[in-house]
From TrEMBL:
Keyword ATP-binding: yes
Protein known as: Molybdate transport system ATP-binding protein
A Gene Ontology molecular function term of the record: molybdate ion transmembrane transporter activity
PANTHER family named among the record's database cross-references: ABC TRANSPORTER I FAMILY MEMBER 10 (PTHR43514), MOLYBDENUM IMPORT ATP-BINDING PROTEIN MODC 2 (PTHR43514:SF10)
Organism expressing this protein natively: Amphritea japonica ATCC BAA-1530
């Protein structure tokens, strides 16, 4: 861990109480419902809002009891919900606005050049165009590139996809995944979207009512039953796997996940590719024996580790472990209390988890 922050105090009528450590690289997602304090925390990190607290990055203090580094001196890139480009400048001029302020001596430690960013974000055909006539997705790609061309030590992204339609969201996520593989600086990303956090997050911080209530790796957080995120209708787990083989006849691929196999639609992935699989709790059922003559392709041998009430009295959440010599991962099932009673499901019981639908992220 190389990024630590602690903030406590009032911002108008809102109370923030956050205390977290984050990895030195990768994407850390601040996740939770609207109004829970994600953007407020991000603004404190940027220095746009000031509360009592502490903020250290790579051993350097940007804020403590005696010191507060002002926002204009913080090497931070900030991407807002709206692109906020200069309408009187071309795409190239918008990008160079931040780039020209970077001194030659600062171009180290993971610096990405102008040409490389233009390539990564496919901006070449847009460089001489006016930003006024661009789509929302194109404008946001330019905003991301402009933030990175300032050579920041920290990139902050405040729901950068929230103003986009579904087509542009899907496009931008692909570009963000490219950047994720290329960047060495930490990225702190704000969202309330399950899909975005499932695809992009290396580390997740869950927030509720101004407080940080949990933090950890994606699979660990999204399989916890004590967090409010599991009461969402689209709640689910995220599994890490590797493409093991392709079945070209039926357009499927088999993904190896902790010693078990999951079949899903072939989207052009290659054998050996590392992937993430999202499994919704509502798409998981449980059997005491492997089914014969079923249309459900994915039936995983597993073990129950926890059973907890859902919001509705008639429903419960069940945490299920799949494991092999390489480690263990967890999925969550949402079942009726009647089914749990009829099957005599208990913690420690070995079962078969049937997964009706799987999404490769």
């Amino acid at each position: 861990m190389s990024l630590y922050c602690r903030f406590k105090g009032s911002l108008g009528q809102f109370e923030l109480d956050a205390d977290i450590e984050l990895p030195e690289s990768g994407v850390s997602v601040l996740f939770g419902p609207s109004g829970c304090g994600k953007t407020s925390l991000l603004r404190c990190l940027a220095g746009l809002s000031r509360l009592e607290g502490q903020f250290d990055i790579n051993g350097e203090s940007w804020q403590n009891d005696k010191h507060f580094l002002p926002v204009h001196k913080r090497p931070v890139g900030y991407v807002f919900q709206e692109a906020s480009l200069f309408p009187h400048l071309s795409v190239r001029a918008n990008l160079l606005f931040g780039h020209k302020r970077v001194k030659r001596s600062q171009k180290a430690n993971g610096y990405i050049s102008f040409d490389r960013l233009v390539e990564l974000l496919s901006l070449g055909p847009l460089l001489e165009r006016s930003v006024v006539r661009l789509s929302g997705g194109e404008r946001q790609r330019i905003a991301i590139a402009r933030a990175l061309l300032t050579n920041p030590r920290l990139l902050l992204m405040d729901e950068p996809l929230s103003a986009l339609d579904s087509h542009n969201k899907a496009e931008i996520i692909c570009y963000l995944e490219r950047l994720q593989r290329e960047l060495t600086i930490p990225i702190i990303y704000v969202t309330h979207s399950h899909e975005e956090v499932s695809r992009l997050a290396d580390y997740v911080v869950v927030m509720e009512a101004g407080r940080t209530v949990a933090a950890g790796e994606v699979n660990a957080i999204f399989s916890r039953l004590d967090l409010p995120i599991q009461h969402d209708e689209i709640a689910g787990s995220v599994l890490n796997g590797v493409i093991a083989e392709a079945d070209h006849q039926w357009g499927l691929v088999r993904i190896g996940v902790s010693g078990e196999s999951i079949w899903c639609r072939d989207t052009g992935l290659q054998s050996g590719d590392h992937v993430r699989v999202r499994v919704l709790a509502r798409d998981v059922s449980i059997a005491l024996n492997p089914l014969v003559g079923s249309s459900i392709l994915n039936c995983l041998q597993a073990q129950i580790t926890e059973i907890k009430d859902d919001v509705a009295h008639s429903i419960a959440l069940v945490r299920i472990k799949i494991s092999d010599s390489q480690g263990e991962q967890y999925i969550v099932a949402r079942l009726s209390r009647r089914s749990i009673s009829q099957l005599d499901l208990q913690v420690g019981k070995k079962i078969w988890a049937q997964i009706k639908s799987v999404a490769v992220m």
